[in-house]
Design brief:
With about 400 residues, the protein is an alpha/beta fold. It is built from 10 helices and 14 strands. β13 and β14 form a beta hairpin. α2 packs parallel to α3, α6 packs antiparallel against α7 and α9 packs antiparallel against α10. The two termini are about 50 Å apart.
């Protein structure tokens, strides 16, 4: 039985005037086509989206949607899964043949998730199950535009087309049950006998696994997160290094007593233009790998310097550990997504580093390693400001 759509869209709270990153400054230029055979539902969706500055048109069946897509060239289509004339997956393929860059969000009644997954494989960027709140719809719309913008601006994304589509869906499907598990776990912990050591140990295992999955989901999202030059600022690399080193005892508490961290930072290095948070994340990923490679203890040495050639100059960071090192045959795969030599590694840490350093900051990253002797990672950032991330 189909869910009654006329009551499935409800606005539960006032939308803030300033949406910051959620609302693009040029959203008034965005064209959205709502394809749904429920006239009142489509009108309600359209009215709410128009209040957010979008230009919205409506089609109540597949043929009308094809005509609208051909004449108006919408940037995004909200596609109802069940239409009276054309099956959803067939219409999706037709819309993509008209404009391969159009983003499509599938709208489905409860129980249609399996078909929605097939539609995402066919090119849809997201799906929403009815009933949903307007906030959820607006979030999905803005996220779809962020992903499509990144794909247009960053041609490197074409190397990973399936990951770009899959990761946001993966995050949506994993995080919801993880939140439920975390909530249920908290209730169990409050109501159980703290003296039962076996039970406590089992609960800790569940908690650690939930945390591990949360971190994996976040790394997936970090990998496909669109670059934003609006967040670029002049960066003092020594400041970033000092911040990371100072947080190691708290962030990596299990290693703090066994590993010595030494810094050799050249004074008064020129600043380079970039995203402070992304550069910090990239160096943190490298530091984490180094610490995990020295579980039995060791030393991590971090050096910064400036080299004039090639002009106009580069800020250089070298991170060297005396950990377990890597086999030579593995070095060629280090930056490939999901490649890992660690039992519980996600294989995304260095892939994210490459995206941040090379693709978004026009820098360089090089890894030298010898099994049983340690690993040295060299990172370089150009001080010349580029027009935008690649």
């Amino acid at each position: 039985m189909r869910v009654t759509e006329t009551r499935s869209l409800r606005r539960t709270k006032k939308v803030p005037e300033d949406r910051g990153s959620e609302r693009s400054m040029d959203s008034i230029k965005r064209k959205i086509l709502v394809v749904d055979d429920n006239v009142e539902f489509a009108k309600t969706v359209a009215r709410n989206l128009e209040k957010e500055g979008f230009q919205v048109s409506i089609a109540n069946d597949g043929n009308a949607a094809i005509l609208s897509a051909s004449s108006d060239s919408p940037d995004l289509v909200l596609l109802d899964l069940k239409l009276p004339d054309i099956p959803g997956i067939e219409l999706l393929r037709i819309l993509k043949s008209i404009n391969e860059n159009v983003s499509v969000i599938v709208i489905t009644a409860y129980g249609g998730e399996r078909v929605a997954i097939d539609l995402m494989k066919a090119g849809a960027i997201d799906f929403l199950s009815k009933p949903f709140d307007f906030e959820n719809l607006l979030s999905a719309v803005n996220n779809a535009f962020k992903i499509s913008d990144a794909q247009k601006e960053d041609k490197v994304h074409e190397i990973y087309p399936h990951l770009e589509k899959f990761f946001p869906f993966l995050a949506h499907e994993i995080r919801n049950p993880l939140h439920a598990i975390s909530g249920a776990l908290a209730i169990i912990q409050r109501r159980t006998d703290s003296k039962d050591e076996i039970l406590n140990q089992s609960l800790r295992v569940i908690q650690e696994e939930v945390q591990h999955l949360n971190e994996f989901v976040q790394e997936c999202l970090d990998f496909v997160r669109p670059p934003s030059e609006s967040r670029y600022v002049p960066i003092d690399i020594n400041e970033v290094i000092s911040f990371i080193v100072n947080t190691i005892p708290h962030r990596f508490e299990e290693f703090s007593d066994k590993i010595r961290v030494t810094t050799d930072l050249a004074p008064q290095l020129p600043r380079f233009f970039g995203s402070y948070e992304e550069v910090k994340q990239a160096l943190l990923n490298i530091v984490r790998n180094a610490l995990e490679a020295m579980e039995q203890g060791g030393e991590l040495v971090i050096r910064s310097s400036f080299q004039l050639e090639p002009k106009p100059g580069w800020v250089k960071v070298v991170l060297a550990d005396d950990g377990v090192g890597m086999k030579e045959e593995n070095l060629q795969f280090l930056f490939q997504p999901f490649f890992t030599t660690k039992p519980r590694g996600t294989g995304l840490g260095l892939a994210i580093c490459k995206r941040i350093i090379v693709e978004r900051h026009h820098g360089k990253i090089q890894v030298e390693s010898q099994e049983g002797k340690g690993t040295t990672v060299t990172v370089e950032f150009p001080i010349e400001r580029r027009s935008r991330p690649r």
